[in-house]
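Recap quiz, item 2
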Amino acid sequence: MAEVYQKDIQLDDYSKEDLVTFYREMVKIRKFDENLIRLMHEGKVSGFYHSGIGSEGLSVGSIVKNLRDEDYLYYNHRGCNQKIAKGVPLSKLYGDFLGTVEGTTRGLGAGIVHSADTSRGVLGQAGTIGSQFNIAVGSAYSAKLQNTNRVTVVYFGDGAASREPLHGSLNWAGLYNLPIIYICENNEYAISSRWDETHSVREHIADWAWGYGISNCVVDGNDVLLMNEVTKEAVDRAKRGEGPTFIEAKTFRHRGHFEGDTYDYVDQEELKDWKENRDPIKNFKNLLLENNICVENEFTRVDEEVDQEILEAIAKAESSPMPDEKRIYEGLFA
Amino acid sequence: MRKITMREAIIEGLHEEMERDDQKVLFGEDVGKFGGINAITRGLYERFGGERVFDTPIAESTIVGAALGMAITGLRPIPELQFGDFVGIAFDEVFNKLGKWRYMHGGTMEVPVTLRAPIGMAGGAGPEHSQSPQALFMHAPGVHIAIPSTPYDAKGLLKTAIRDNNAVLFFEHKLLYDTKGEVPEAEDEYLIPLGQADVKREGSDVTIIATALQVQTSLQAAEKLANEGIDVEVIDPRTLAPLDKETLLSSVQKTGRVLIVHEESKTGGSGAEIAAQISEEALFDLEAPVKRIGSPDVPIAQSLHLEPYYRPSEKQITDAVHELLEY
Ligand SMILES: Cc1ncc(C[n+]2csc(CCOP(=O)(O)OP(=O)(O)O)c2C)c(N)n1
């Protein structure tokens, strides 16, 4: 069934600049998230938030060096990891959470879901998780018909993978040989349910893809370089007209399902192990240090620059006004 | 009488009915060990075990479809949708199957399904987690629709729903879960029949027909109006299907002025049907055209700053009552 993707990655094959970019983007995502949680505690954010901390490598690795603005992206409902990696301005994301007109929704407000940035191919996400599967084959079909070589990438959790539309979508993707990449962010839990309690596949979720004749694999989602490599192969395959790929990327949430979740249903030792030994940022930083690619104060500088960028983004989002009542009547029809 | 929250009342109702026989099964996302995202199914897994109380995959159409299949083969399923909005996912099963399966196959099967779903705006949950979809199913013959506004009604209606041999859609407003009200001790069992409205406040000047959270808002508005010497009657239909027309019409006969208040968007909301029935059957009792208050006919924005523009307010209600009286 699904094979575990492995590759002997040579750091020499990467420029230092690219490696530092991977680090910077991961840190940006984490700090974005931490600051958002702070804003939530200050009572400024509507709705619930599902933190993406602990899975930054998955999104940065798959997106940053592989996807262009014109490639289509349907993000997951966990964190803003994919949107940030695809380059959506931070002030616009904060604006959506704060409900100011700086946001992509111009003040309607959006949580993780419902931000969109079509100039960067970010086409939104359903509040009903898993409903993006069918929409994604539609945009992949467009790309095929329009001969654009645009790739569609759809992210979803292990839980969303139990939605019925996954199967309808995989069937289309296989049948019409569509340029689409499914990236399952398997963090083992869907709210309180472990994936093996709610999925009939015993080994891997990616095994389902076999039945639809779709290339598939399982990968360590917390290894940013492996994620980059595996996605690159999938993107190339899609661009060559060789059709869809299903990637199951393994990771784990550092925080509960939503802010305020007791998170007492996971094995605390397991959680500790993921946090201490399998943190994508910590491990990547150590890799660069051990291989003498960077020294400590280079990371410090990046961290400080990112802190600054985030503070500016929040300031911009916060200083933008909230809309008045009229806003709710705008934009229903084209 | 003791006072408990609507959450506690529903939990009690579920426990009591699950206790009555072992053919009742309860399932949905995170309803087992976790006890449900709104903590409504707490303790059931521990009491009744993992076969009768189980977590399902995130697969709403399968949840509802499976409930139907269980029901026609002797079980009495009590599935939960995590959000009422997700009826959209299981629309075929809810709209085309639950209410029609028995009828279209000649009427020999029974469909004792009680589908629970939380509804309503609460805390900026946005366009896909805040809706009140109940009116859609007034257009689906064969299903009952319960929509309680108090802990007492919630428990009594839920127990009746579970014992009914037809499908009941049971909608719970999220902002009501923590509201308290009088409920008899567990040993004093009571049931509330489906199709029986409740006059929450008697009055002679204007009839307000309200559901769910808006019953509470209407009662508050009625208190304000009482200070001005305006005597408002507030009626909660409690079930939209069957609809207790008699109680509504006799109030209309008494007051001649009607305001319908609900959180559903106004166009095509349950108030549209209720207003139509009043105009069909009591037009000449009316002293003023029927008024309706609902949320605007646009998707619900996520922003907490905008949410109040959607939720009918006490002020809208008092203004509308004044307009009815001045007509
Ligand atoms: C169709 C649908 N069902 C249920 C929910 C409620 N819900 C939101 S997130 C979630 C769990 C998702 O788990 P998973 O896909 O594994 O992603 P994770 O949260 O673990 O990242 C659930 C049940 C929803 N939003 N949409």
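The interface with chain A takes residues 29-30, 32-34, 37, 55-59, 61-62, 85-86, 88-89, 123-129, 296, 298-299, 301-307, 309-310 of chain B (CB under 8 Å).
Chain B has a mean pLDDT of 98.
End of item.
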